Amino acid sequence: MIEATDLRKLYRIADREVLALDGVDLRVAPGEVYGVVGQSGAGKSTLLRCVNLLERPTSGSVRVHGRELTAMSESELRGARRDIGMVHQHFALLSSRTVAGNVAFPLEIMGVRGAQRRRRVGELLELVGLQDKARAYPAQLSGGQKQRVGIARALAARPAVLLSDEATSALDPETTGSILELLRDLNRELGLTILLITHEMDVIKQICDSAAIMEDGRFLEQGPILDLLARPGSLLARSLFPLPALEDPDTVVLTHTRQPETAVLSELTRHFDVDVHMYGGAVDTIAGSTVGRLQLRITGAARAAALDHLREQGMGVEVGA
Ligand SMILES: Nc1ncnc2c1ncn2[C@@H]1O[C@H](COP(=O)(O)OP(=O)(O)OP(=O)(O)O)[C@@H](O)[C@H]1O
């Protein structure tokens, strides 16, 4: 659905060069919510602007919905961008227009008129739960309501893909939760593919199916979240479940993404000649699954066999971590 291959973006300002994208490969499957997380300056905004070709990449290709955007002229791009909705951190609403007027704006540009336009605006406001605010002006809305208007406007042309540029960064945690829930509902109900950028791990945790961690213009790791979490050395797992660094070589960090660890651990001590001590850990709901990450000390004659058994059970096993 979104495919970017070996994307590079080099900015030149006076005598300085910044490689904002340094060979990024991105694959977002149809109907998934994909999050790119990274600190300020990692290259996230540049990536998003290159995906809808608001910015031309220095090299590499971008395909959205089967069409190669990087091969298109500016006028072809204007048409292709109807397939790509965009939501902004600071909402980007027109203050002189009502809520209905803001949502109607892209429809006006597309030449949708009269009753058809009014009907579509009504549908969109209902979709985002703002039917009663049609005549309000942006200044009369809360941040969360403004973002709902931004989302309704982004969906006006029935895009297949929604790009979200830090959509919840200007909102408080509770409002963030409700906007993320709305995005998740739209993803499920409309089959909307969502690519979002964020600096908040919580956003990744709450709605993403897949994620990439970005630093210095590169993806350090990427993939389906549950697969990433189970991978030894996963940066995502370390960020979502921070554990203390221990010197003990017998330490094992166990990550389970699909089954509770309790039965597995009691089974382990029953069937293998090992002792298991718990240092710490946490359990959380991620990508709709219960995920646990435990820091254990496993010792005994059958330690190696016990660790193999855990791996066979689909557990992520990190030794000496
Ligand atoms: N138009 C531009 N001209 C020159 N350099 C730029 C431009 N846009 C971004 N950069 C540089 O590219 C790098 C990546 O910036 P970018 O805004 O993509 O990062 P980001 O991860 O989105 O950060 P933030 O979360 O702070 O927006 C930075 O070093 C930035 O200074």
From TrEMBL:
CDD domains: ABC_MetN_methionine_transporter. The lineage of its organism: Bacteria, Bacillati, Actinomycetota, Actinomycetes, Streptosporangiales. Residues 2-241 form the ABC transporter domain. This is ATP-binding cassette domain-containing protein. Keywords: Amino-acid transport, ATP-binding, Cell membrane, Membrane, Nucleotide-binding, Translocase, Transport. PROSITE patterns: ABC_TRANSPORTER_1 (PS00211), ABC_TRANSPORTER_2 (PS50893). Gene3D superfamilies: 3.30.70.260, P-loop containing nucleotide triphosphate hydrolases (3.40.50.300). SMART domains: AAA (SM00382), NIL (SM00930). InterPro entries: AAA+_ATPase (IPR003593), ABC_transporter-like_ATP-bd (IPR003439), ABC_transporter-like_CS (IPR017871), ACT-like_dom_sf (IPR045865), MetN_ABC (IPR041701), MetN_ABC_transporter-like (IPR050086), NIL_domain (IPR018449), P-loop_NTPase (IPR027417). Pfam families: ABC_tran, NIL. GO terms for molecular function: ATP binding.
